[in-house]
Structures are given as structure tokens and as C-alpha cells.
Design goal:
268 residues, 88% helix, mainly alpha, single chain, globular, 9 helices
């Protein structure tokens, strides 16, 4: 049954996101065609190139926002709208509902990244593409030459942290939607209020940490000196520490949404 839910969500995502990804690649192709007239140097070319470049930038932002919006709509419709009456009668646990939708979102987030990468390859198609590829290989060689085995560990830690951050972000939004369903009226408004409340709390915590660091200049100076002496261990600690934080936050958001679905479900 979980496979069927994932398949159903995949179909919904494909109908909405695949055309958007193809449009982005099409805009990139248009931008590349415009670049073929670069030698003219006319004002018309400058305006056209600037317009196509701006359109491409807007397309990237729009694709990413659309991916997030589709994920939120699919979660809300499947769990808390009229469709939820059917979803919660299926032989599927709340945990499986949340994880199946989260899995689909992560896959299509990777699809959005792939579409952006392909569009960049289209824009730089030709000699520029080749030069960028050579520069990338050179940077990777220098990276591994300097960090050696630690370089591979850094890449693995970065990838794990990226996935964990994306998952934690979406689980937080799932939690906001779930908390919003506790209200009898204006549920979406409460969900938005919870989101901004969490944002404000995050800003307050960040500000407090900055103030504490400023007031302890001596300890901060010692920390900088330690980092200069041991930069590689520090980077490992930073990546792994932030990975643990993201994983912990994701679990908290997950269990709050799960608890609401199990004990306080309100579809009225």
C-alpha cells in the first residue's frame, strides 16, 4: 500500500513539475541561442540577453518554490482535506504517510537540482562548457591533493547534511500544517502563524548566540586560534554537529506531526 501511495504522489508531482523543469531547460536553450549573437554588440542584443538571463534566474527560483508548494499541497490534501478521510482509513500508519510523502519530495528536489544542472550545461554549451569542466576537474584534483582522504569524508558529510537539511525543512512545514489543523477555524492561518513563530524563535536564538560570542571575546579568540591550528578536525566537527542538529530537529517535527495524526486528528 505504501508503494501505491508513493506511486500516486509521483504521478501528481510529474504532472506539475516535469513541465516546469522542461520550461526551465527551454529558457536555458533560449539564453544560449541569444548568446550566439554576442558579436553584434548591439543594444538590442544587450537588452535581449539581460532579459533572458533574468528570466532564467526567475525560472530557477520558481522551480524550487513550485517543488516546495506542490509538496505542501500534496501533504495537506492527502492528510487534512476531504481526501484525508480516505487516506486515514487505509492500512497505512501515520509514520508511513509522512515518510512516503517526504521520500517523494526528496526525490523531486533532487530532480529539480538535476534540471538546474542540465539547464546550466545548456547555457554554457560549447567552449565555455568545456572550460568549466576542466576548471572543475582542476579544483577537484587540488581539493583531494590538499585534503586527501578527508576530502572524500567532507563530500559525504556535505551530501548527508544537505539531505538532512532538506528533510528537516519539509518536516517542519509538515508540522506547521499539522498544528494548524488543531484550530476549529482558519487552520491555514494558524499554520502560517506557527511557521513565522518558529522563524522568530530561530532569529532570537541566533541573536542570543551572537551576543554571547561578542561578550566573550577572549574565548572567541581562543576558538579562532584552535581552528587555525586544527582546521580539518574543526570542519568534521562542524559538519557532523550540524548534521546531528538537523536530524534531531527533523525527528522532533516528525513525532509532533505523527502525534497529531494519531491522537488529535481533526478533519472537520
Amino acid at each position: 500500500m505504501v508503494r501505491k501511495l508513493i506511486k500516486y504522489d509521483f504521478q501528481s508531482y510529474l504532472r506539475l513539475l516535469l513541465p516546469a523543469q522542461l520550461v526551465l531547460i527551454g529558457i536555458a536553450a533560449l539564453n544560449r541561442i541569444v548568446q550566439l549573437f554576442e558579436d553584434t554588440g548591439s543594444s538590442i542584443y544587450n537588452i535581449t540577453f539581460a532579459s533572458s538571463a533574468a528570466l532564467y534566474g526567475i525560472g530557477i527560483v520558481a522551480l524550487w518554490l513550485l517543488t516546495i508548494i506542490v509538496a505542501l499541497v500534496r501533504f495537506y490534501q492527502g492528510m487534512y482535506s476531504h481526501e484525508g478521510y480516505l487516506s486515514h482509513t487505509l492500512p497505512v500508519t501515520p509514520s508511513q504517510h509522512i515518510l512516503s510523502k517526504l521520500f517523494t519530495y526528496v526525490i523531486f528536489s533532487l530532480g529539480a537540482v538535476l534540471a538546474i544542472f542540465v539547464s546550466l550545461c545548456v547555457i554554457t554549451l560549447g567552449e565555455v562548457n568545456f572550460e568549466l569542466f576542466k576548471a572543475f576537474l582542476y579544483l577537484m584534483r587540488e581539493f583531494f591533493r590538499y585534503f586527501q582522504v578527508n576530502g572524500a569524508l567532507f563530500i559525504i558529510e556535505f551530501l548527508l547534511l544537505s539531505v538532512a537539511s532538506v528533510m528537516a525543512e519539509m518536516l517542519m512545514l509538515y508540522m506547521c500544517i499539522s498544528i494548524g489543523q488543531l484550530a476549529k477555524k482558519k487552520k491555514i492561518l494558524l499554520s502560517v502563524g506557527v511557521f513565522f513563530g518558529l522563524y522568530v524563535i530561530g532569529q532570537i536564538i541566533s541573536t542570543i548566540l551572537i551576543i554571547i560570542g561578542t561578550l566573550n571575546a577572549e574565548a572567541l579568540s581562543e576558538l579562532y586560534q584552535t581552528i587555525e591550528k586544527h582546521p580539518i578536525p574543526f570542519l568534521h566537527i562542524l559538519f557532523c554537529g550540524w548534521l546531528v542538529v538537523q536530524a534531531a530537529l527533523g525527528l522532533i517535527f516528525f513525532f509532533i506531526s505523527k502525534h497529531i495524526m494519531e491522537k488529535k486528528l481533526n478533519l472537520t
